[in-house]
Amino acid sequence: MLWLYAVVFILLASAAYAAVHGAPWVPTRRRDVARVLRLLDAKPGQTVYELGCGDGRVSVAIARQTCAKVVGVELSLAQWLAASIRGVVYRATPSYKEGDSAARGSLRFCLADAFSVDLSGADAVYLFLMPETYAKLRPKFERELKPGAVVVSYVWPIPGWTPAERDHREGTEDLYRYVR
Ligand SMILES: C[S@@+](CC[C@H](N)C(=O)[O-])C[C@H]1O[C@@H](n2cnc3c(N)ncnc32)[C@H](O)[C@@H]1O
């Protein structure tokens, strides 16, 4: 029984660490996922990073609907496990298994700190973290992202950057699109 307490403790501790280090887990609203996809405007074969991918629902939607190569990055063990299971389920669907490999995108979930992943290969990045984390990530984006890479942030703008587009709808959260 002690092992069960140990597992629960590790899961809670890693979620608490992620909450302090970037943001607690709160999913993007389902009704906003289509707006995220529109702003990312990812094309088949492009590489999209979701920093702090939570349970992977947005990453799976991106892979399924854009056929991009999606990398979900998550610091909390529990969320990463949930995302990985979601990824396995997605890959087991008949439409994925029977689909043309070039036309269904790819999906990978990494247990890692968003601050430590190399973003030089990213064509687009999606993030829903705390506003102070956006400010801390900005220098990394400026160093690593290639010209033309798209960054989409949910709820809050990235301090110091001017968005190419702000998607504002009554009754839900704002989205901001930036082009490097
Ligand atoms: C607000 S939730 C957003 C989840 C998901 N992106 C979505 O929109 O449904 C933030 C997620 O980022 C994770 N997180 C926080 N800090 C992080 C960091 N430094 N690196 C990677 N993931 C982080 C949290 O564990 C949490 O799952």
- Structural class call reads alpha/beta
Low-confidence stretches: none
Strand content: 15-25%
Give the termini distance in whole angstroms: 51 Å
Describe this structure in words.
This protein is α/β, with parallel strands linked by helices and 180 residues long. It has a single domain (2-179), classed as 3-Layer(aba) Sandwich (Rossmann fold), CATH 3.40.50.150. It has helices at 2-21, 33-40, 57-66, 77-92, 94-98, 131-144, and strands at residues 47-51, 69-74, 106-111, 124-127, 150-154, 165-167, 175-179. Strands 3-2-1-4-5-7-6 form a seven-stranded mixed sheet, with helices on one face. It is globular and about 55 Å long. The N and C termini lie far apart (51 Å).
Secondary structure: elements and pairs:
Blueprint: H1 2-21, H2 33-40, E1 47-51, H3 57-66, E2 69-74, H4 77-92, H5 94-98, E3 106-111, E4 124-127, H6 131-144, E5 150-154, E6 165-167, E7 175-179
This protein binds S-adenosylmethionine.
Key structural traits:
180 residues, alpha/beta, Rossmann fold, 7 strands, 41% helix, binds S-adenosylmethionine
Give a concise summary.
Helices cover 41% and strands 19% of the residues. It is α/β, with parallel strands linked by helices and 180 residues long.
